[in-house]
Amino acid sequence: MPRQSLPNSFPKRNAPLRKHLTPTSIAAFKPATEGFLWDDVAPRLAVRARPSGAKTFIFKGTLNYRDIRMTIGGVESCPIAKAREEANRFQRMIEEGFDPREVVKQEETARTAEAARLVAEAEAKRIEAERVATPAMEAWQQYIEARRAIWSARHFLEHETVSKEGGEPRTQGRRPGESATTLPGILRPLLLLPLEQIDADRVRVWLKDEATHRPTYARLAFALLRAFLNWCSDRIDYRDQVQAGACITRLARDELPKKSAKDDCLQREQLPAWFAAVRQIQNPVIAAYLQTALLTGARREEVAGIRWEDLDFRWKALTIKDKVDGERTIPLTPYVASLLSALPRRNEWVFSSPTAVSGRLQEPRIMHNKALTAAGLPALSIHGLRRSFGTLAEWVECPAGVSAQIMGHKPSATAEKHYRVRPLDLLRMWHTKIEGWILNEACIEQPSETDARLRVVRNGL
Predict the structure, then answer these.
(1) Residue 351 scores a pLDDT above 80
(2) Residues 6 or more apart from 84 whose CB is under 8 A from it?
(3) Could you give the residue numbers annotated as active site?
(4) Which of 55, 337, 404, 418 is the most exposed place for a label (fewest CB within 10 A)?
């Protein structure tokens, strides 16, 4: 057991100066040297006065026969009642066997730790609030970078397009009444919101608005958004912000018109009128582009992206940048070879354009639509030419796998995937037959392979 503290009274011969501490008594206490004015209410409390005039409250006690002196605070900043409370508290610590200096030190350490904890907690809340308030665009950019390596170039471009800022000068495809600058990407209004605010209600409103003027594109954007939110829900940084059910299938089914397959296609009896009108187009590049698109069954951008280095007139081969597999090689049929060999070599592109920023053909639809109108034919999209090739190929009883391989369709059956390896010569036999039949129906003579080679030589290719 610790020794008891000294009694509250000092020996008579060392009796300290005691008074009832008040502001007046403290102000009147002005010793010539350092002096102590003890309180008559709290016996261990005193005012220490220095010759400089500075006065502070102090506590003095005894623990285990050792004096303990502690400063409580300046008389200007510490009220007398507070000083008495502290002095009595320190005395109770001594009576319980604790050194008040150690207790105060521990209390100060605890206060410092608590203050640091509160600061850290406030900072964490601030960071969390900023994170939650950060637009979903930041997560979208991380999503693109994380998935870019396994996406095709086209799929990556689709994500860039739907989230673009817009405001850039239009270089192509400007319709009457449209602004001279590009519009923001279709998903940008949603991606500028914090991730946790992209919920089913907002997506529904967005879908309803977009469905009125571009339902097909809205369907694609909805699928991209759903894949993005699924990715976020699997990431620890974003999973607590993703709203479950923001892109449930029912939303697209309710707000978008029913998806229907397009069926625009050239019929057998329309071939003469179509070829006659297209061959009358004054721009030979566009005329050759449209005929090549029909006779190869390739996709719009696959045809537009053909470079001169992709043509092999000697071995009658054409390499196309495939959007699915990277590239594919198809036969260079006689009529297509004669069309391409006659085109001017302005740059690397076969279908070049001196006015386009990219240097190649960008918008063949305008001239095509005019040709359709002149020929009295119904509306036909550029993709409809690809559909026409696949349909017309059946007239020569071409195996479905052959036409699909020429067009760049992925095999759909086990036999096609694993048991059909068709050499280019086999594809050429059928492809030349398809081209010959189409040209015959259009009343156009198919050039022989010798004629095609001679024409190439005359053009210096």
Answers:
(1) yes
(2) 21, 39, 41, 42, 45
(3) 299, 321, 383, 386, 409, 419
(4) 418
Residues 385 and 292 grouped into a single domain: yes
Domain boundary among 255, 278, 308: 255
Whether residues 311 and 243 share a domain: the answer is: no
User: Based on the domain organization, do 278 and 345 belong to the same domain?
Assistant: yes
Domain contains 416: yes
Q: How many domains, in total, are found in the chain?
A: 3
Entry field: residues in the chain = 461
For residue 200, give its domain range. Answer: 136-169+184-255
Taking residues 61-76, report their average pLDDT: 91
| Structure-block tokens of residue 446 | 């198919």
Q: What is the pLDDT of residues 203-227, one digit of tens each?
A: 999 999 998 888 889 999 999 999 9
Q: Are residues 398 and 367 in the same domain?
A: yes
Domain end position, chosen among 98, 126, 153: 98
What CATH number did the domain enclosing 401 receive? 1.10.443.10
User: Is residue 178 one of the residues assigned to a domain?
Assistant: no
Q: Kindly report whether the global pTM for this prediction surpasses the value 0.70.
A: no
Which pLDDT belongs to residue 439? 96
3-state secondary structure the chain: CCCCCCCCCCCHHHCCCEECCCHHHHHHCCCCCCEEEEECCCCCEEEEECCCCCEEEEEEEEECCEEEEEEEEECCCCCHHHHHHHHHHHHHHHHCCCCHHHHHHHHHHHHHHHHHHHHHHHHHHHHHHHHHHCEHHHHHHHHHHHHHHHCCHHHHHHHHHHCCCCCCECCCCCCCCCCCECCCCCCHHHHCCEHHHCCHHHHHHHHHHHHCCCHHHHHHHHHHHHHHHHHHHCCCCCCCCCCCCCCCHHHHHHHCCCCCCCCCCCCHHHHHHHHHHHCCCCCHHHHHHHHHHHHHCCCHHHHHCCEHHHEECCCCEEEECCCCCCCEEEECCHHHHHHHHCCCCCCCECCECCCCCCCECCCCHHHHHHHHHHHCCCCCCHHHHHHHHHHHHHHHCCCHHHHHHHHCCCCCCHHHHHCCCCCHHHHHHHHHHHHHHHHHHCCCCCCCHHHHHHHHHHCCC
Is 330 buried (19+), middle (13-18) or exposed (0-12) by CB count in 10 A?
Answer: buried
Is the same domain home to 162 and 76? no
Same-domain status, 301 and 411: yes
pLDDT at 172: 61
**With bands split at pLDDT 50, 70 and 90, how would you rate the model's confidence at 5?**
very low
